[in-house]
Inverse folding.
């Protein structure tokens, strides 16, 4: 599916259906802007204030929704002040950072990355964890960590062939309930779904015969 672009009076909404993980924060939070289950136009940028519409993009974990003010004064594509990866219960890794994937700068700082191994759109989540019955805690144990000297800056995600995501850059690992469980500048995150030390890789991908580019 190509990106949908809907220009309103004050803001423009972009929607990339391939990135959407159906967390439904948009249709549940602002059904006047994102009208569920209708034929035809379902995105209505003028149905709420520019601030509210901007908030819907900032709340979309996958980066599927992006919003910009038409006068150029604000965009949801601005990187955060703190790079984070949130471990979603039974679901993907939600990254917010000045994001690069395979050294390619990304248009949006938000992305949900597959950690069950089943997505057909790796390294992104495509919602396959639900039909696969993937179970994994969103509350990993905290590790010992030192404060980061810098909390933002470029974060590069390098999917390793048949193995984990090598993540390089300043990053705080955050549980589903918002606990910081680790602070790192380089780590290997499991994307095969088999590790016993999720969200980190423990080498289980080899015995599992995990295959991925
Ligand atoms: S991922 Fe974003 S676009 Fe998709 S349902 Fe959730 S909030 Fe809406
Ligand atoms: S990628 Fe899952 S254990 Fe290494």
């Amino acid at each position: 599916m190509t990106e949908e672009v809907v220009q309103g009076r004050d803001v423009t909404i972009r929607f990339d259906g391939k990135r959407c993980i159906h967390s439904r924060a948009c249709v549940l939070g602002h059904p006047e802007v994102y009208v569920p289950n209708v034929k035809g136009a379902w995105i209505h940028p003028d149905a709420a204030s520019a601030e509210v519409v901007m908030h819907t993009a900032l709340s979309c974990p996958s980066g599927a929704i992006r919003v910009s003010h038409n006068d150029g004064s604000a965009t949801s594509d601005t990187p955060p002040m703190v790079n984070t990866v949130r471990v979603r219960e039974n679901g993907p890794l939600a990254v917010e950072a000045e994001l690069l994937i395979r050294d390619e700068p990304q248009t949006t700082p938000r992305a949900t990355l597959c950690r069950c191994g089943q997505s057909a759109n790796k390294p992104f989540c495509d919602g396959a964890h639900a039909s696969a019955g993937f179970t994994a805690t969103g509350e990993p144990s905290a590790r010992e960590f030192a404060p980061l000297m810098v909390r933002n800056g470029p974060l590069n995600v390098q999917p390793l062939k048949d193995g984990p995501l090598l993540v390089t850059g300043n990053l705080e690992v955050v549980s589903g309930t918002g606990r910081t469980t680790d602070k790192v500048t380089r780590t290997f995150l499991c994307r095969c779904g088999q590790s016993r030390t999720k969200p980190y890789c423990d080498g289980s991908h080899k015995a599992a015969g995990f295959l991925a580019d």
Notes: Residues 20-26, 60-62, 64-65 surround iron/sulfur cluster (ligand 1) (CB under 6 Å). The radius of gyration is 17 Å. The first helix runs from residue 25 to 29. DSSP finds four helices and eleven strands in the chain.
